[in-house]
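This section describes the prediction task in plain terms. A model, or a person checking by hand, is given the sequence of a single protein chain and must write out its three-dimensional structure as a string of tokens. No templates, partner chains or ligands are provided. The sample shown here is typical of the held-out split.
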Amino acid sequence: MKRRADPTNGLCLNALFDRAFDRGLITLDAMLRVVVFRRLREVAIDPDLQCSLVEAEGRTITVPKRFPPALDAIEYHRVNVFKT
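The expected answer:
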């Protein structure tokens, strides 16, 4: 799939979320809500380890009016990259 230059194949994420997304620690569900890797949620149950990744669980991303993310690319990430 040649989507590198496709603007619908990208998400505007801060450095922490970008790295977590690339490593499969977070993804988006079909409704574009943040899903966090189960093991990360378990580890972050300790209040001293809470981080913004876990706090984002279930939140819907803001979709840009121009070049919204391609749902098939999000699904590909969820199925093939996200750690289940």
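For orientation: The chain is about 35% helix and 5% strand.
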